[in-house]
Amino acid sequence: MTGSEKVITVMIADDHPMVREGLNAMIATELDMRVVGEAQDGATAMQVWEQVRPNIVLIDLLLPDGADVIRRICERSCNSHVIVLSSACGAEDIYRALESGARGFLFKDIVREMLIGSIREVHSGRRCLPVQVSARMAEGFPRPGITSREVEILGLVASGLKNKEIAAHLNISETTVHSHIKHVLGKLGASDRTHAVTIALRRGIIHL
To answer: Looking at the whole model, is its pTM more than 0.90?
Structure first.
């Protein structure tokens, strides 16, 4: 690296210490990159970001408030670009990340060379969506258009609650719950509640 070249500053936000350690080790081998901050949750991520204002933020979408953190960073600065590095690999996870403002999406089983290349690519102003990621997005298209309330109810169904219990939990009628579930089955092309949950988990609409 020549003296005229700028170092790419990187921040890592992930709740697993070993993941942060591994990413640190990979980035440390590059002369034109330096990790300047780490965070293990959403609140800390925003605090650290405010302090270091990195060029690149590597963040796990499944971090508590992960999508919100991405959105807030992208709204506050055009000089920090976000790359999602996540085990969340459903089509809706990817769409959610990109809609929040992420410039790249990588699965956590990515090889070092692709990670480093992606950081450079996004830092240069381009998007980074590897073939595997684009293929996963295509699997979830057209998107089902499920509402936030329907996602909430799907999550409660996945946790094992019956319609009556969901109604009590959300303070709505059991008839309303039944109507929401009926709409979800139609949107997902599911045959029953269990099938709907299976599809929703695979697509990244909900997470256990």
So the answer is: no
